[in-house]
Amino acid sequence: MRYVSTRGAAPDLGFGDVLLEGLATDGGLYVPEAWPALPVVDHTQAYATAAVEVMWPFVAGSIELEDFAAIVEDAYATFRPPAGAEPDVVPVVDLGDGLWLAELYWGPTLAFKDIALQLVGRLFDHELERRGERITIVGATSGDTGSAAIDACRDRSHLDIFILHPAGRTSEVQRRQMTTVDAPNVHNVAVEGTFDDCQDIVKALFADEGFRREQSLSAVNSINWARVMAQIVYYVTAARAVAHRSGRRSDDPVSYCVPTGNFGNIFAGWGAMRMGLAVDQLVVASNTNDILTRFFTTGTMDVHGVTPTLSPSMDIQVSSNLERLLFEMNGRDGAAIAELMARFRGEGTVSVPTEQLAWLSERFDAGRLDDEACLRVMGERYRRSGVLLDPHTAVGVGVAESVHRDPDVPMICLGTAHPAKFPDAVEQATGVRPPLPEHLADLFERTERYVTLPASVDAVRDHVRRHVTAA
Ligand SMILES: *Cc1c(COP(=O)(O)O)cnc(C)c1O
Fold it and tell me: Are 416 and 153 a contacting pair, CB within 8 Å?
């Protein structure tokens, strides 16, 4: 499989290069040159087995099947769904009224990002080992992605990871999920400043050509193709499980409602559909930061400021992965996308013609839910059936309740975070403070490891130089 850039002016690459490079040299995102056909997956298969089958066409030629299968197996063995939950790794729960919940949050850090990152961390290490290279990953976090990235990279021998968080400005659970990881290649830095300061420092380090080359700096951000690839799998396994449990044929269509930020998760659903999965509707669920919902309903994308909400992982200004869908919509015309993105960057707004809006609305629906409605959904679901939803998942469930849908088609809501990850919001809505699952129950007793540094590029650069371990 070869990969092409959405802006059409970067070299085609194989999977190994796409994995390590992330962004294409023309500023575009990599997509497979053609969508492979979906292999046969049935509801009795273990998640890891289905995952190898679904992803194999994307990686074939860059890794041995046996190695790939072992990596996938190892990645998903880190998941701890409750005893008796089915299917394994990503269990599916019947919410009633044709709605289902796919629980993507039983990984080490209780958010769906673990599904992609547990795999990507191991693939990075394997590819670096093969090349005899090492890298240094540097990133900034306001709380959530940092912990998933750290857990995915811990104990990998060919990389170090440095994650900057704003000192005193993350929740205690979030900080502890990062700082209690005891691995020599994991480096937590509390920066005396804001999240924006952290991001500015990371940007400055990447812009320092000499340092970038010296350390082989890398990122594990959400534009990496391998993350999208890993997310295609659960669309397939959830569809098979719901078909089986509701006595339908395995190829009867289902719909999905996806709490969306950077558009990575829902684009994976679109990929599954392109591979042949029978999908009726893909529903984009936004919180108050609804740039995507406005785009899918009006055809105009324009940037507003970001308002903090109860679902912070969806508090975005621009959705980077949307570019992959725009590329497909434009008949894979890279030059058109380069022009469109330049216009968007310059003017902060861009509109697509009516026929393209029709193309979008044939495939996608969209809705938004503000915090007040989100709390109401959490409260109602708990009182009605004892289900605790985190605020991100609740945005999806609330939008699924309100969007127009075919009553004969099951709608699968993607559960993107465990309720215990956002205990304050859950308690506010339901009166119940959700306990951490057993494997994290002693989180507050574990030893924390981090250094505190001033918000200075020099201080952080110096710290990285002195603490890299990978050889
Ligand atoms: C990252 C995240 C999202 C948004 O996912 P995208 O792939 O960026 O659309 C939603 N919910 C939670 C809990 C997340 O961590």
Answer: no
Rounded to the nearest angstrom, the gap between the alpha carbon of residue 408 and the centroid of all alpha carbons in its chain is 29
Higher pLDDT, 22 or 226: 226
Which numbered atom of ligand 1 lies nearest the CA of 264?
7
For residue range 412-423, list pLDDT tens digits in order.
Answer: 999 999 999 999
Q: Using a 6 Å cutoff on CB, does residue 261 contact ligand 1?
A: yes
pLDDT at residue 259, rounded to an integer: 97
Atom of ligand 1 nearest to the CA of 113: 15
Is 417 near ligand 1, meaning CB less than 6 Å away? yes
Domain ranges of the chain: 92-108+226-430
Residue 308 Cα to ligand 1 middle (Å):
15
Structure tokens at 166: 């704003």
- For residue 174 and ligand 1, the question of a CB distance below 6 A is answered with no
Cα of 284 to ligand 1 centre, how many Å? 12
Reported as a single tens digit per residue, the pLDDT across 351-374 is: 999 999 999 999 999 999 999 999
**Measured between alpha carbons, how far is residue 112 from residues 64, 93, 99, 148, 161 in Å?**
27, 16, 19, 9, 20
> CATH topology for 92-108+226-430?
Rossmann fold (3.40.50)
Contacts (Cβ under 8 Å, ≥6 apart) of 380: none
Calculate how far, in angstroms, residue 259's C-alpha sits from the geometric centre of ligand 1. Answer: 7
**Nearest by Cα to 296 from 362, 370, 393:** 362
Instruction: Tell whether the model's pLDDT for residue 471 goes beyond 70.
Output: no
